[in-house]
Amino acid sequence: MADFDFDLIVIGGGSGGVRAARMAASYGARVALIEAGRMGGTCVNVGCVPKKLLAYGGHYASDLEDMTAYGWRVEGPARFDWPTLKVAKDQEIARLNGIYDQLLERAGVEVIAGRGAVVGTHRVSVSVSGEPVGREPVGRELTSRYLLIATGGRPWRPEPGVLPGIEHTWTSDDIFALDALPDRIVVVGGGYIGCEMASILHSFGVRVHLIHRGETLLRGFDADLGHELGNELRKRGVHLHLLCTPQRIQRVDGHLRIEIEAGDTIEADAVLMATGRVPNTAGLGLQAAGVELSERGAVLVDDRFRSTCPSIFAVGDVIDRMQLTPVALAEGMRVARNLFLGEDEALDYRFVPTAVFTHPGVGTVGWTEADAARHFDKLRLYKSSFRPMRHTLTGRNARTSMKIIVDDATDQVVGLHVVGEDAAEIVQGFAVALRCGVTKAQLDTTIGIHPSAAEELVTMRTEWTPAS
Protein backbone atom coordinates (compact mmCIF):
# COMPACT_ATOMS: atom_id res chain seq x y z
CA MET A 1 0.00 0.00 0.00
CA ALA A 2 2.93 2.35 0.53
CA ASP A 3 3.29 2.65 -3.25
CA PHE A 4 0.05 4.67 -3.35
CA ASP A 5 -0.97 8.02 -1.89
CA PHE A 6 -4.08 6.40 -0.38
CA ASP A 7 -5.58 3.00 0.25
CA LEU A 8 -9.00 4.20 -0.91
CA ILE A 9 -10.13 7.21 -2.91
CA VAL A 10 -13.86 7.81 -3.05
CA ILE A 11 -15.36 9.99 -5.78
CA GLY A 12 -18.68 11.33 -4.52
CA GLY A 13 -19.81 12.66 -1.15
CA GLY A 14 -23.28 11.17 -1.00
CA SER A 15 -24.60 8.55 1.40
CA GLY A 16 -22.75 5.54 0.02
CA GLY A 17 -19.46 7.33 -0.53
CA VAL A 18 -19.36 8.98 2.87
CA ARG A 19 -20.24 5.75 4.68
CA ALA A 20 -17.56 3.79 2.83
CA ALA A 21 -14.94 6.47 3.47
CA ARG A 22 -15.72 6.78 7.18
CA MET A 23 -15.79 3.05 7.80
CA ALA A 24 -12.62 2.38 5.79
CA ALA A 25 -10.78 5.08 7.74
CA SER A 26 -12.02 3.60 11.04
CA TYR A 27 -10.50 0.28 9.95
CA GLY A 28 -7.10 1.93 9.53
CA ALA A 29 -7.11 2.73 5.82
CA ARG A 30 -5.75 5.99 4.38
CA VAL A 31 -8.79 7.51 2.70
CA ALA A 32 -9.57 10.55 0.55
CA LEU A 33 -12.99 11.65 -0.61
CA ILE A 34 -13.46 13.97 -3.60
CA GLU A 35 -16.62 16.07 -3.90
CA ALA A 36 -17.33 19.08 -6.12
CA GLY A 37 -20.42 20.32 -4.33
CA ARG A 38 -22.19 20.07 -1.01
CA MET A 39 -21.81 16.98 1.13
CA GLY A 40 -24.68 14.54 1.43
CA GLY A 41 -25.42 13.92 -2.24
CA THR A 42 -28.93 13.66 -3.64
CA CYS A 43 -30.52 12.55 -0.36
CA VAL A 44 -29.49 15.53 1.74
CA ASN A 45 -29.55 18.27 -0.90
CA VAL A 46 -32.22 17.50 -3.51
CA GLY A 47 -33.86 14.29 -2.39
CA CYS A 48 -35.00 12.51 0.77
CA VAL A 49 -34.41 15.26 3.33
CA PRO A 50 -35.89 18.34 1.61
CA LYS A 51 -38.65 16.22 0.09
CA LYS A 52 -39.71 14.87 3.50
CA LEU A 53 -39.59 18.37 5.04
CA LEU A 54 -41.88 19.66 2.28
CA ALA A 55 -44.17 16.66 2.76
CA TYR A 56 -44.42 17.48 6.47
CA GLY A 57 -45.27 21.06 5.57
CA GLY A 58 -47.95 19.95 3.16
CA HIS A 59 -49.71 17.84 5.79
CA TYR A 60 -50.78 20.95 7.68
CA ALA A 61 -53.19 21.89 4.89
CA SER A 62 -55.42 18.87 5.55
CA ASP A 63 -54.82 19.08 9.31
CA LEU A 64 -56.18 22.61 9.32
CA GLU A 65 -59.24 21.50 7.39
CA ASP A 66 -59.86 18.57 9.72
CA MET A 67 -59.27 20.21 13.08
CA THR A 68 -62.69 21.86 13.35
CA ALA A 69 -64.26 18.39 13.55
CA TYR A 70 -62.27 17.91 16.75
CA GLY A 71 -63.32 21.20 18.32
CA TRP A 72 -60.41 23.43 17.34
CA ARG A 73 -61.04 26.95 16.05
CA VAL A 74 -58.58 29.46 14.61
CA GLU A 75 -59.72 33.02 13.97
CA GLY A 76 -59.18 34.22 10.40
CA PRO A 77 -58.00 32.31 7.34
CA ALA A 78 -54.75 30.30 7.44
CA ARG A 79 -52.05 31.45 5.04
CA PHE A 80 -49.11 29.46 3.69
CA ASP A 81 -45.78 31.26 3.17
CA TRP A 82 -43.41 29.35 0.90
CA PRO A 83 -40.32 31.55 1.59
CA THR A 84 -40.55 30.75 5.31
CA LEU A 85 -40.52 27.01 4.66
CA LYS A 86 -37.78 27.33 2.04
CA VAL A 87 -35.47 29.23 4.42
CA ALA A 88 -36.05 26.71 7.21
CA LYS A 89 -35.43 23.83 4.80
CA ASP A 90 -32.20 25.39 3.52
CA GLN A 91 -30.95 25.97 7.05
CA GLU A 92 -31.52 22.34 7.95
CA ILE A 93 -29.69 21.16 4.81
CA ALA A 94 -26.74 23.44 5.58
CA ARG A 95 -26.62 21.98 9.09
CA LEU A 96 -26.52 18.46 7.66
CA ASN A 97 -23.82 19.44 5.14
CA GLY A 98 -21.70 20.57 8.07
CA ILE A 99 -22.32 17.36 10.00
CA TYR A 100 -21.13 15.28 7.05
CA ASP A 101 -17.93 17.34 6.88
CA GLN A 102 -17.37 16.92 10.61
CA LEU A 103 -17.93 13.16 10.50
CA LEU A 104 -15.34 12.75 7.76
CA GLU A 105 -12.85 15.01 9.51
CA ARG A 106 -13.20 13.13 12.80
CA ALA A 107 -12.73 9.82 10.99
CA GLY A 108 -9.48 11.08 9.48
CA VAL A 109 -10.71 11.18 5.88
CA GLU A 110 -9.03 13.80 3.69
CA VAL A 111 -11.82 15.72 1.96
CA ILE A 112 -10.81 17.21 -1.37
CA ALA A 113 -12.95 19.84 -3.08
CA GLY A 114 -13.15 19.44 -6.82
CA ARG A 115 -14.32 17.17 -9.58
CA GLY A 116 -12.67 13.77 -9.67
CA ALA A 117 -12.02 11.79 -12.82
CA VAL A 118 -10.41 8.39 -13.29
CA VAL A 119 -7.22 8.62 -15.36
CA GLY A 120 -5.89 5.13 -14.70
CA THR A 121 -6.66 1.94 -12.85
CA HIS A 122 -5.22 3.46 -9.67
CA ARG A 123 -5.09 7.16 -10.51
CA VAL A 124 -7.53 10.05 -10.13
CA SER A 125 -7.27 13.65 -11.30
CA VAL A 126 -8.95 16.46 -9.37
CA SER A 127 -10.00 19.64 -11.14
CA VAL A 128 -11.61 22.70 -9.62
CA SER A 129 -15.31 22.82 -10.54
CA GLY A 130 -17.92 25.25 -9.27
CA GLU A 131 -17.68 26.74 -5.80
CA PRO A 132 -17.29 24.03 -3.17
CA VAL A 133 -18.87 24.87 0.15
CA GLY A 134 -16.53 25.32 3.11
CA ARG A 135 -13.42 23.64 1.64
CA GLU A 136 -10.46 24.91 -0.32
CA PRO A 137 -10.29 23.74 -3.95
CA VAL A 138 -7.19 21.96 -5.26
CA GLY A 139 -5.81 20.73 -8.53
CA ARG A 140 -3.70 17.56 -8.57
CA GLU A 141 -3.43 13.85 -9.35
CA LEU A 142 -3.66 11.17 -6.71
CA THR A 143 -3.06 7.44 -6.60
CA SER A 144 -4.82 4.78 -4.58
CA ARG A 145 -4.87 1.02 -4.21
CA TYR A 146 -8.64 1.09 -4.63
CA LEU A 147 -11.05 3.57 -6.18
CA LEU A 148 -14.73 3.80 -5.27
CA ILE A 149 -17.22 5.50 -7.58
CA ALA A 150 -20.19 6.90 -5.63
CA THR A 151 -21.33 9.75 -7.85
CA GLY A 152 -25.05 9.00 -7.61
CA GLY A 153 -27.58 9.94 -10.25
CA ARG A 154 -29.03 12.96 -12.00
CA PRO A 155 -32.48 13.83 -13.38
CA TRP A 156 -33.20 12.64 -16.91
CA ARG A 157 -35.14 14.60 -19.51
CA PRO A 158 -35.91 13.77 -23.16
CA GLU A 159 -33.89 15.49 -25.84
CA PRO A 160 -35.48 18.52 -27.64
CA GLY A 161 -35.91 16.43 -30.78
CA VAL A 162 -38.02 13.95 -28.83
CA LEU A 163 -40.12 16.50 -26.94
CA PRO A 164 -40.21 19.99 -28.48
CA GLY A 165 -40.14 22.65 -25.79
CA ILE A 166 -38.24 20.57 -23.24
CA GLU A 167 -36.08 23.63 -22.53
CA HIS A 168 -39.07 25.21 -20.78
CA THR A 169 -39.28 22.46 -18.15
CA TRP A 170 -37.94 21.90 -14.65
CA THR A 171 -36.55 18.82 -12.94
CA SER A 172 -37.14 17.84 -9.32
CA ASP A 173 -33.82 19.48 -8.40
CA ASP A 174 -35.26 22.84 -9.45
CA ILE A 175 -38.31 22.57 -7.16
CA PHE A 176 -36.19 22.84 -4.02
CA ALA A 177 -34.61 26.12 -5.17
CA LEU A 178 -37.79 27.97 -6.17
CA ASP A 179 -38.23 31.45 -4.72
CA ALA A 180 -41.98 31.28 -5.37
CA LEU A 181 -44.44 28.54 -6.23
CA PRO A 182 -46.32 28.51 -9.53
CA ASP A 183 -50.10 28.77 -9.53
CA ARG A 184 -50.43 25.86 -11.98
CA ILE A 185 -48.06 23.04 -12.83
CA VAL A 186 -47.98 19.96 -15.02
CA VAL A 187 -46.00 17.04 -13.61
CA VAL A 188 -44.83 14.56 -16.23
CA GLY A 189 -44.15 11.12 -14.79
CA GLY A 190 -46.05 8.86 -12.40
CA GLY A 191 -43.15 7.28 -10.55
CA TYR A 192 -42.39 8.00 -6.92
CA ILE A 193 -40.76 11.38 -7.66
CA GLY A 194 -43.65 12.58 -9.82
CA CYS A 195 -46.28 11.39 -7.36
CA GLU A 196 -44.50 12.92 -4.38
CA MET A 197 -43.98 16.27 -6.08
CA ALA A 198 -47.55 16.37 -7.39
CA SER A 199 -48.91 15.62 -3.92
CA ILE A 200 -46.66 18.11 -2.12
CA LEU A 201 -47.29 20.97 -4.56
CA HIS A 202 -51.03 20.36 -4.49
CA SER A 203 -51.01 20.53 -0.70
CA PHE A 204 -49.47 24.01 -0.95
CA GLY A 205 -52.33 25.20 -3.14
CA VAL A 206 -50.79 24.68 -6.57
CA ARG A 207 -53.20 23.38 -9.19
CA VAL A 208 -51.61 20.13 -10.39
CA HIS A 209 -52.05 18.02 -13.51
CA LEU A 210 -50.08 14.75 -13.53
CA ILE A 211 -49.39 13.10 -16.90
CA HIS A 212 -48.33 9.45 -16.86
CA ARG A 213 -47.88 7.08 -19.76
CA GLY A 214 -48.91 4.02 -17.73
CA GLU A 215 -52.31 2.65 -16.81
CA THR A 216 -51.57 3.03 -13.08
CA LEU A 217 -49.11 5.10 -11.07
CA LEU A 218 -45.88 3.82 -9.50
CA ARG A 219 -44.48 1.50 -12.14
CA GLY A 220 -42.41 -1.21 -10.49
CA PHE A 221 -44.55 -1.20 -7.33
CA ASP A 222 -47.47 -3.53 -6.73
CA ALA A 223 -50.22 -2.56 -9.17
CA ASP A 224 -52.79 -2.20 -6.38
CA LEU A 225 -50.63 0.47 -4.75
CA GLY A 226 -50.61 2.60 -7.88
CA HIS A 227 -54.34 2.13 -8.35
CA GLU A 228 -55.23 3.06 -4.77
CA LEU A 229 -52.85 6.01 -4.67
CA GLY A 230 -54.36 7.32 -7.90
CA ASN A 231 -57.81 7.18 -6.36
CA GLU A 232 -56.66 9.11 -3.28
CA LEU A 233 -54.85 11.78 -5.30
CA ARG A 234 -57.96 12.33 -7.40
CA LYS A 235 -60.07 12.76 -4.27
CA ARG A 236 -57.69 15.45 -3.09
CA GLY A 237 -57.94 17.34 -6.37
CA VAL A 238 -54.90 16.26 -8.41
CA HIS A 239 -55.88 15.92 -12.08
CA LEU A 240 -54.55 12.61 -13.44
CA HIS A 241 -54.00 11.97 -17.14
CA LEU A 242 -53.11 8.28 -17.50
CA LEU A 243 -52.04 6.46 -20.67
CA CYS A 244 -50.88 9.84 -21.87
CA THR A 245 -47.64 11.60 -22.83
CA PRO A 246 -46.81 15.24 -23.66
CA GLN A 247 -46.33 15.95 -27.36
CA ARG A 248 -45.17 19.58 -27.33
CA ILE A 249 -44.58 22.39 -24.84
CA GLN A 250 -44.94 26.00 -25.99
CA ARG A 251 -44.59 29.33 -24.24
CA VAL A 252 -47.66 31.42 -25.09
CA ASP A 253 -48.47 34.83 -23.59
CA GLY A 254 -46.38 34.30 -20.47
CA HIS A 255 -47.57 30.77 -19.67
CA LEU A 256 -46.98 27.26 -21.01
CA ARG A 257 -49.27 25.27 -23.25
CA ILE A 258 -48.79 21.50 -23.08
CA GLU A 259 -50.16 19.46 -25.95
CA ILE A 260 -51.13 15.90 -25.12
CA GLU A 261 -52.72 13.10 -27.15
CA ALA A 262 -55.98 13.58 -29.03
CA GLY A 263 -55.24 17.27 -29.54
CA ASP A 264 -55.98 18.21 -25.94
CA THR A 265 -53.99 20.97 -24.25
CA ILE A 266 -53.28 22.01 -20.66
CA GLU A 267 -52.39 25.56 -19.64
CA ALA A 268 -49.83 25.90 -16.86
CA ASP A 269 -47.17 28.17 -15.41
CA ALA A 270 -44.56 25.42 -15.12
CA VAL A 271 -43.83 21.87 -16.24
CA LEU A 272 -41.91 19.43 -14.03
CA MET A 273 -40.26 16.52 -15.81
CA ALA A 274 -40.23 13.72 -13.25
CA THR A 275 -39.18 11.13 -15.78
CA GLY A 276 -36.57 9.33 -13.73
CA ARG A 277 -32.90 9.57 -12.88
CA VAL A 278 -29.85 8.09 -14.59
CA PRO A 279 -26.40 7.19 -13.22
CA ASN A 280 -24.02 10.13 -13.04
CA THR A 281 -21.00 8.70 -14.88
CA ALA A 282 -20.50 11.18 -17.74
CA GLY A 283 -16.99 12.63 -17.83
CA LEU A 284 -15.54 10.30 -15.20
CA GLY A 285 -13.21 8.51 -17.64
CA LEU A 286 -14.35 5.11 -16.46
CA GLN A 287 -14.44 3.29 -19.78
CA ALA A 288 -10.88 4.30 -20.59
CA ALA A 289 -9.85 2.60 -17.35
CA GLY A 290 -11.58 -0.61 -18.37
CA VAL A 291 -14.84 -0.10 -16.49
CA GLU A 292 -17.86 -1.41 -18.38
CA LEU A 293 -21.07 0.63 -18.27
CA SER A 294 -24.66 -0.33 -19.00
CA GLU A 295 -26.74 1.31 -21.73
CA ARG A 296 -28.05 3.75 -19.09
CA GLY A 297 -24.50 4.58 -18.01
CA ALA A 298 -24.50 2.53 -14.80
CA VAL A 299 -21.27 1.00 -13.55
CA LEU A 300 -21.56 -2.77 -13.93
CA VAL A 301 -20.38 -4.49 -10.75
CA ASP A 302 -20.38 -7.98 -9.30
CA ASP A 303 -21.94 -8.99 -5.99
CA ARG A 304 -18.92 -7.50 -4.15
CA PHE A 305 -19.37 -4.17 -6.00
CA ARG A 306 -16.18 -4.66 -8.03
CA SER A 307 -16.32 -3.31 -11.58
CA THR A 308 -14.72 -4.90 -14.64
CA CYS A 309 -11.53 -3.11 -13.55
CA PRO A 310 -10.35 -5.04 -10.45
CA SER A 311 -9.21 -1.95 -8.52
CA ILE A 312 -12.38 0.10 -9.13
CA PHE A 313 -15.59 -0.38 -7.13
CA ALA A 314 -18.96 1.39 -7.21
CA VAL A 315 -22.00 1.76 -4.92
CA GLY A 316 -25.28 3.66 -4.72
CA ASP A 317 -27.40 5.10 -7.50
CA VAL A 318 -24.47 4.97 -9.91
CA ILE A 319 -24.85 1.17 -10.13
CA ASP A 320 -28.62 1.54 -10.78
CA ARG A 321 -29.80 -1.34 -8.60
CA MET A 322 -31.96 0.10 -5.83
CA GLN A 323 -31.98 3.88 -5.70
CA LEU A 324 -32.49 4.14 -1.94
CA THR A 325 -30.30 5.91 0.62
CA PRO A 326 -30.26 3.06 3.17
CA VAL A 327 -29.23 0.65 0.41
CA ALA A 328 -26.33 2.92 -0.60
CA LEU A 329 -25.26 3.09 3.05
CA ALA A 330 -25.30 -0.70 3.32
CA GLU A 331 -23.37 -1.06 0.05
CA GLY A 332 -20.71 1.42 1.20
CA MET A 333 -20.34 -0.40 4.51
CA ARG A 334 -20.02 -3.73 2.75
CA VAL A 335 -17.25 -2.48 0.44
CA ALA A 336 -15.27 -1.07 3.37
CA ARG A 337 -15.57 -4.28 5.39
CA ASN A 338 -14.65 -6.50 2.46
CA LEU A 339 -11.61 -4.46 1.49
CA PHE A 340 -10.18 -3.55 4.90
CA LEU A 341 -11.46 -6.17 7.35
CA GLY A 342 -10.79 -9.12 5.08
CA GLU A 343 -14.43 -10.11 4.79
CA ASP A 344 -15.87 -11.50 1.57
CA GLU A 345 -19.63 -11.13 1.71
CA ALA A 346 -22.36 -10.00 -0.66
CA LEU A 347 -25.27 -7.75 0.31
CA ASP A 348 -28.67 -9.35 0.80
CA TYR A 349 -31.28 -7.26 -1.05
CA ARG A 350 -34.26 -9.39 0.00
CA PHE A 351 -37.13 -7.59 1.68
CA VAL A 352 -35.80 -4.05 1.42
CA PRO A 353 -38.66 -1.75 2.47
CA THR A 354 -39.37 1.56 0.82
CA ALA A 355 -41.92 4.36 0.99
CA VAL A 356 -43.47 7.05 -1.18
CA PHE A 357 -44.13 10.24 0.78
CA THR A 358 -47.34 11.32 -0.88
CA HIS A 359 -50.58 12.34 0.84
CA PRO A 360 -51.52 9.64 1.77
CA GLY A 361 -48.25 7.76 1.93
CA VAL A 362 -47.22 4.41 0.50
CA GLY A 363 -45.16 1.76 2.27
CA THR A 364 -44.05 -1.52 0.76
CA VAL A 365 -41.76 -4.47 1.41
CA GLY A 366 -41.23 -7.71 -0.48
CA TRP A 367 -42.60 -9.02 -3.73
CA THR A 368 -45.26 -7.39 -5.84
CA GLU A 369 -48.15 -9.69 -6.75
CA ALA A 370 -47.00 -9.86 -10.37
CA ASP A 371 -43.41 -10.77 -9.48
CA ALA A 372 -44.46 -13.21 -6.76
CA ALA A 373 -46.71 -15.02 -9.24
CA ARG A 374 -43.63 -15.69 -11.40
CA HIS A 375 -41.59 -17.10 -8.51
CA PHE A 376 -44.09 -19.10 -6.46
CA ASP A 377 -46.43 -21.85 -7.65
CA LYS A 378 -49.46 -20.62 -5.71
CA LEU A 379 -50.20 -17.43 -3.79
CA ARG A 380 -52.76 -16.44 -1.20
CA LEU A 381 -53.80 -12.80 -1.15
CA TYR A 382 -55.33 -10.80 1.68
CA LYS A 383 -56.69 -7.30 1.11
CA SER A 384 -58.42 -4.69 3.23
CA SER A 385 -59.69 -1.17 2.58
CA PHE A 386 -61.21 0.97 5.30
CA ARG A 387 -61.81 4.54 6.42
CA PRO A 388 -59.17 5.56 9.00
CA MET A 389 -60.68 6.11 12.44
CA ARG A 390 -59.52 9.72 12.39
CA HIS A 391 -61.89 10.50 9.54
CA THR A 392 -64.99 9.06 11.16
CA LEU A 393 -65.31 12.54 12.66
CA THR A 394 -63.88 14.68 9.87
CA GLY A 395 -66.07 13.06 7.21
CA ARG A 396 -63.12 13.11 4.78
CA ASN A 397 -63.53 10.53 2.03
CA ALA A 398 -60.14 8.93 2.63
CA ARG A 399 -59.26 5.25 2.59
CA THR A 400 -56.40 3.13 3.86
CA SER A 401 -55.62 0.04 1.77
CA MET A 402 -53.50 -2.94 2.78
CA LYS A 403 -52.37 -6.09 1.02
CA ILE A 404 -50.55 -9.22 2.15
CA ILE A 405 -49.05 -11.75 -0.30
CA VAL A 406 -48.39 -15.28 0.99
CA ASP A 407 -46.53 -18.21 -0.57
CA ASP A 408 -49.14 -20.94 -0.16
CA ALA A 409 -46.60 -23.77 -0.01
CA THR A 410 -44.71 -22.40 3.02
CA ASP A 411 -47.25 -19.93 4.48
CA GLN A 412 -44.43 -17.34 4.39
CA VAL A 413 -45.44 -13.71 3.91
CA VAL A 414 -43.52 -12.58 0.83
CA GLY A 415 -45.10 -9.15 0.22
CA LEU A 416 -46.78 -6.49 2.32
CA HIS A 417 -48.11 -3.21 0.94
CA VAL A 418 -49.89 -0.21 2.47
CA VAL A 419 -51.46 2.99 1.15
CA GLY A 420 -52.53 5.32 3.93
CA GLU A 421 -51.45 7.65 6.71
CA ASP A 422 -48.21 6.60 8.43
CA ALA A 423 -47.61 3.86 5.85
CA ALA A 424 -43.82 4.17 6.11
CA GLU A 425 -43.84 3.90 9.89
CA ILE A 426 -46.09 0.84 9.77
CA VAL A 427 -44.16 -1.02 7.09
CA GLN A 428 -40.73 -0.46 8.65
CA GLY A 429 -41.63 -2.70 11.58
CA PHE A 430 -43.20 -5.39 9.42
CA ALA A 431 -40.06 -5.40 7.23
CA VAL A 432 -38.17 -6.88 10.17
CA ALA A 433 -40.73 -9.67 10.37
CA LEU A 434 -40.48 -10.44 6.65
CA ARG A 435 -36.67 -10.52 6.89
CA CYS A 436 -37.08 -13.11 9.64
CA GLY A 437 -39.41 -15.26 7.51
CA VAL A 438 -42.71 -14.50 9.22
CA THR A 439 -45.64 -16.71 8.26
CA LYS A 440 -49.26 -15.75 7.88
CA ALA A 441 -50.08 -18.01 10.83
CA GLN A 442 -47.67 -16.00 13.00
CA LEU A 443 -49.31 -12.74 11.93
CA ASP A 444 -52.68 -14.28 12.80
CA THR A 445 -51.55 -15.12 16.34
CA THR A 446 -50.05 -11.66 16.93
CA ILE A 447 -52.24 -9.41 19.04
CA GLY A 448 -52.78 -6.01 17.48
CA ILE A 449 -52.66 -2.55 19.00
CA HIS A 450 -56.20 -1.22 19.17
CA PRO A 451 -57.31 1.13 17.82
CA SER A 452 -54.66 1.52 15.14
CA ALA A 453 -54.43 1.12 11.40
CA ALA A 454 -51.49 -1.27 11.73
CA GLU A 455 -53.57 -3.85 13.61
CA GLU A 456 -55.38 -4.59 10.35
CA LEU A 457 -52.27 -6.39 9.15
CA VAL A 458 -52.61 -8.97 11.94
CA THR A 459 -56.38 -9.35 11.74
CA MET A 460 -56.96 -10.11 8.05
CA ARG A 461 -58.26 -13.68 7.98
CA THR A 462 -60.29 -14.00 4.78
CA GLU A 463 -58.38 -14.81 1.62
CA TRP A 464 -59.12 -12.42 -1.23
CA THR A 465 -60.03 -13.83 -4.63
CA PRO A 466 -60.68 -11.78 -7.79
CA ALA A 467 -64.31 -11.34 -8.74
CA SER A 468 -65.32 -13.69 -11.54
Describe this structure in words.
With 468 residues, this protein is of the alpha/beta class. The chain folds into three domains: 6-53 and 82-154 and 278-340, FAD/NAD(P)-binding domain; 166-275, FAD/NAD(P)-binding domain; 354-458, FAD/NAD-linked reductase, C-terminal dimerisation domain (Enolase-like, domain 1, 2-Layer Sandwich), CATH 3.30.390.30. It contains twelve helices and 21 strands. It has helices at 15-26, 41-46, 48-66, 82-107, 172-175, 192-203, 223-236, 325-340, 369-375, 391-394, 423-435, 440-444, and strands at residues 6-11, 31-35, 110-113, 115-118, 123-127, 140-149, 153-155, 184-188, 207-212, 239-242, 246-252, 255-260, 265-268, 270-273, 277-279, 312-314, 354-356, 361-366, 379-386, 400-407, 412-420. A hairpin with a 4-residue loop joins strand 17 and strand 18 (361-366). The termini are far apart.
Task: Give a quick summary of the entry.
This protein is of the alpha/beta class and 468 residues long.
